[in-house]
Specification:
Layout (H helix, E strand, L loop, with lengths): L2 H6 L7 H10 L4 E9 L5 E9 L9 H10 L3 H18 L5 E6 L1 H6 L3 H11 L7 E5 L8 H14 L2 E7 L3 H10 L3 E4 L11 H16 L3 E4 L5 H9 L4 E3 L53 H10 L5 E6 L2 E7 H8 L4 H5 L14 E3 L4 H10 L3 H5 L1 E5 L2 E6 L1 H17 L10 H14 L3 E9 L1 H8 L1 H17 L7 E6 L2 E6 L4 H15 L6 H6 L1 E5 L5 E5 L2 E9 L8 H15 L6 E6 L4
Parallel strand pairs: 2-3, 3-4, 4-5, 5-6, 6-7, 7-8, 11-12, 19-20
Antiparallel strand pairs: 1-2, 1-8, 9-10, 12-13, 14-16, 14-19, 15-16, 17-18
Helix pairs in contact: 10-16, 18-19
Length: 594
């Protein structure tokens, strides 16, 4: 052991050394396996093999175990026991996919026969080196990179792939990437967790993904715990992931995908989540405007000086005249003799007077609807943002997509995990927003009839299937540009209708529900039209097939409602009236607010 370590580190308790000795002699280690999955479709890629000390020992936690072994000079012995334990357990339990095997880079360099020892364990277990990824953990101080490079190349020649762990935790991991050109890099969980709410972390993930693409390295994002974090990682183009969202470390290597987390083949969604008061003002990026008499040579100089400048606005007396787009200008100006002939001419000769001009108060939803109907150039060259007709700044398609994605992720934080519909926080926010705008709408409260008895007889899993059906039908029969759909909880849903044909849509929805609900019952229950179950008094009673009751409160004078509480009360009263009618039904209440 390095004597400097002995000086810097406090001595361990006297009983730790014999405890570590006993652990190594009796081989009292157990393996844990955490899935690594493909983020595109949720398919299993493999498992990282982890290690745990005895549950009744102070050395149970990996950090404590390895720290003790390091300080007491037993690290190499522990390292090899860990590898053998993980390899043997993975093979014995017929783990699927790749095995990611943690290896200390120092052991690869210092220990003679490191590769052959690991290879013999793998072959004895009936595995192939091509099924194993050697995952290099933190670099040892003073590591000889030339030696390590040779060791890694020898591992590769045997068929192993190479990964670097905890990228971003220190400069050593970045140097390892540069020196070793690994097949995989794992991004430290610090940069993944909370990335949906942290632009710096998001930018780091994008940068690493871009470098990896250029160096033909695959990225594994560690520590993914929420759908919002998963969405950001996928948005950055990272292909593999690991974290509690997919599975915790378990003694048996198992993985069951959750289809709701993976929807492949989707185009970027330019819909703004309802419940957000997002406007174009959030996209403003100020670019100093050009005067109409500015020369083309000056325009060229600005583009050349700032490679990130995608367009330059031309403004006269505060009123925008149009845009000069980088691509169009540079292509035209670079042609033979153009610079000599037109360099001192006014820039208006390259001006696009049909550039898109948007008021800052326009909603992001309106802007996204508008842009999707217009020429694609507006996404690339951007658009001018004004305030009451006066130049304010520029916006572009990338900023629009980024802001909408941020809002979608924010909405996902409060989504119901079963249906992925917005929960109570966004529901309340949306109602208050509509009241504040003073726009009439209809608040429809939906509730399932006879749902509790169904759960009692068929179980909660089948009940969850019915709740998902309601969510699917609501999405299918509403207009996302006008209507808001939320899942209050349990079997309670809400629709805030803005569509003028909302009543017809509701009737079609009820018919669709009645047509689908029989498939959730056994043939004999379908035949008799219901089930027998205990009521709240413990009596066996016959309950018809589940039905959907909808109570709709028409909010035609929003200014008379103080808050969402008043709207919720009106919709709740209407729902209670609807439930008095047998079968699926709609009750409409038109009343003035308080």
């Amino acid at each position: 052991m390095d004597p400097r370590t002995e000086i810097m580190c406090p001595p361990y308790p006297a009983d730790v050394l014999p405890e570590l000795e006993r652990l190594l002699q009796e081989r009292r280690l157990t393996a844990r396996f955490q899935p690594v999955i493909a983020l595109e479709d949720g398919a299993l890629f493999g498992f990282e093999g982890l290690i745990r000390g005895p549950g009744d020992s102070s050395l149970h936690a990996p950090l404590v175990l390895f720290d003790a072994a390091r300080r007491l000079g037993r690290l190499s012995e522990l390292e090899y026991l860990c590898r053998e334990t993980v390899i043997t357990a993975f093979a014995a339990q017929e783990g699927e996919g790749k095995l990611l095997l943690n290896v200390d880079p120092g052991a690869m360099v210092v220990q003679p026969g490191d590769q052959s020892r690991t290879l013999s364990w793998i072959e004895r277990a009936g595995l192939s080196p091509r099924e194993v990824v050697i995952e290099l953990t933190e670099a040892t101080p003073g590591l000889d990179y030339a030696q390590l490079r040779r060791a890694v190349e020898h591992y590769r020649s045997l068929g192993f792939a190479i990964a670097i762990d905890d990228l971003g935790e220190g400069f050593s991991s970045l140097r390892l990437w540069s020196e070793l050109e690994p097949d995989f890099v794992k991004i430290d969980k610090h940069f993944v967790q909370g990335a949906h709410a942290d632009p710096i972390k998001w930018q780091f993930l994008e940068s690493i993904a871009r470098i990896a693409r250029n160096s033909r390295t695959r990225v594994i994002a560690e520590g993914i715990e929420t759908p919002a974090e998963l969405a950001v990682v996928r948005e950055c183009g990272i292909s593999l992931g690991q974290g509690y969202l997919f599975g915790r470390p378990e003694p048996r290597p198992g993985y069951r995908p959750e289809p709701a987390h993976f929807r492949s083949g989707q185009e970027p969604d330019l819909r703004v989540p309802a419940g957000t008061e997002a406007s174009v003002a959030s996209l403003v990026h100020y670019v100093a405007p050009l005067a109409p008499e500015t020369t083309n040579e000056e325009v060229f100089a600005r583009f050349e000086h700032d490679p990130e400048l995608y367009a330059q606005p031309v403004v006269a007396d505060g009123v925008p005249l149009g845009l000069i787009a980088r691509n169009h200008f540079m292509d035209a100006y670079a042609r033979p003799y153009r610079r000599e002939l037109y360099g001192h001419r006014p820039c208006t000769m390259y001006l696009d007077r049909n550039a898109l001009v948007i008021d800052r108060r326009m909603s992001l939803q309106q802007l996204s609807d508008l842009i999707t109907q217009l020429d694609a150039k507006h996404l690339v060259q951007g658009f001018i943002i004004t305030d009451a007709g006066r130049y304010l700044g520029l916006g572009n398609g990338h900023a629009l997509l980024r802001e909408i994605t941020r809002l979608q992720l924010e909405s996902a934080r409060h989504a119901n995990p079963l249906t992925n519909l917005p929960g109570n926080v966004p529901i309340q926010r949306e109602i208050d927003t509509r009241l504040k705008r003073g726009e009439p709408f209809v608040a429809a409260y939906l509730d399932l009839d006879h749902f509790k008895p169904y759960n009692d007889v068929y179980g909660f899993r089948r009940g969850d299937d019915i709740l998902r059906l309601v969510g699917e039908l609501l999405r299918e029969h509403t207009d996302p540009a006008r209507d808001f759909v939320g899942h209050i909880g349990g079997d309670d849903f809400i629709v805030l209708w803005g569509s003028p044909d909302w009543q017809d849509r509701t009737e079609v929805l009820l018919r669709a529900f009645d047509a689908r609900i029989p498939e959730f019952y056994r043939p004999e229950d379908r035949a008799r039209g219901g089930i027998e179950a205990e009521d709240r008094q413990g009596r066996t009673v016959f309950f018809p097939l589940c039905a959907l009751s909808v109570g709709a409160a028409v909010i035609d004078e929003p200014q008379r409602y103080e808050s969402y509480h008043a709207v919720a009360e009106a919709a709740s009263v209407a729902k209670k009236m609807a439930k008095k009618t047998p079968g699926s039904s709609l009750f409409v209440e038109r009343r003035r607010g308080a």
